[in-house]
């Protein structure tokens, strides 16, 4: 196939910068990395980029294609070439460029190291001399985080890092969650205290770009949400972001709605609210602040309350509850067309078991402790009474 690429060339020593175009023949199965190899071998040996494994394992070949971070060795060029597109290749964002597509990874690794990315064991060695076993439920909490290959694609796209380069960032926080969620680690509270400080968990703007660009499905934003949930569970809620989240939980439980109007007094306190009264009056005057009294209660508020009860009854606070909610949402997203009722969906052949809600008399439904991880038509991996 005929491929054309535009590549941003940059030399940090001279500050020279130029967008160069290259056209060449490549095999149909070529990836972006193969194409860069062809450019370097046959057209311009001075082109600088990183690579090693060529199979999405080492994390070396992160770069941007048309402004979005990709792993070059994962990106097939066939469709792009067929469409006649000429993508623009540039270095990753949020890290200083050294040369062409090579960035300085030192800031990335210092944040990584700051997370203490190693197990600090704190468990009793099993008496039977066998290995320390972890339940499937607990492994589900850190499964995605353990897939990270440290490529930096998430960091490249992080909005919060653009405004605060000191922000720990999606990769480091996902690594932190890998250890906070590991039941063998003894430093959970110390870690959560550290990650909840300035430039930590609560600085994330929830733009979800890190989830979107991660080539390994780590979903760093979800890891940050789990860290937040774990921090609140441990009572580490000094940050305004934590107070904000707590109020939203409370307001959905009581009314089924996010009562944003009450957010300022509930999170910043009375003194700060009084100081902002002039601003609030301006909002009210322009009909920008809904002041419903008594607060509006959603018609199906019992669903929100039942969910809250479910999480408490199953002892699924913190990251466990987050994972359960994430999976339930994914299932609904894949199965709920809007035309069938939920009952009809759950009655389909091979469908997931209907969720158990408190008071319905079953503790065995999807989302219950015994059915936490089940594939349609398959036996659950965690059987009643099984696991460690
Ligand atoms: S969701 Fe948070 S961590 Fe992820 S890219 Fe956005 S600001 Fe950064
Ligand atoms: S979380 Fe994903 S995008 Fe970020 S460094 Fe790890 S593998 Fe790369
Ligand atoms: S070369 Fe190793 S991940 Fe691309």
Rounded to an integer in angstroms, the radius of gyration calculated over CA atoms is 25 Å
Ligand set: iron/sulfur cluster, FE2/S2 (inorganic) cluster
- N→C terminal distance: 54 Å
Work out the number of β strands.
7
| Main sheet: strand order | 2-1-5-3-4
Helix run count: 16
Helix/strand/pairing category: alpha+beta
Percentage of residues in helical conformation: 40-55%
Shape label: globular
* Largest pleated sheet: 5 strands, mixed
Q: Mean pLDDT across all residues, rounded?
A: 85
Q: Runs with pLDDT <50, length 5+?
A: 356-378, 380-388
Q: Roughly what fraction of the amino acids lie in strands?
A: 5-15%
Provide a brief overview of the structure.
With 388 residues, this protein is an alpha+beta fold. The protein has helices at 32-43, 78-82, 106-114, 136-142, 153-157, 159-163, 169-180, 188-195, 209-213, 220-233, 240-255, 263-275, 277-285, 301-313, 318-335, 342-347; strands spanning 2-11, 16-25, 62-65, 68-71, 88-90, 97-99, 102-103.
Q: Could you list some keywords that capture this structure?
A:
single chain; 388 residues; alpha+beta; five-stranded mixed sheet; two-stranded antiparallel sheet; 40% helix; disordered C terminus; binds iron/sulfur cluster
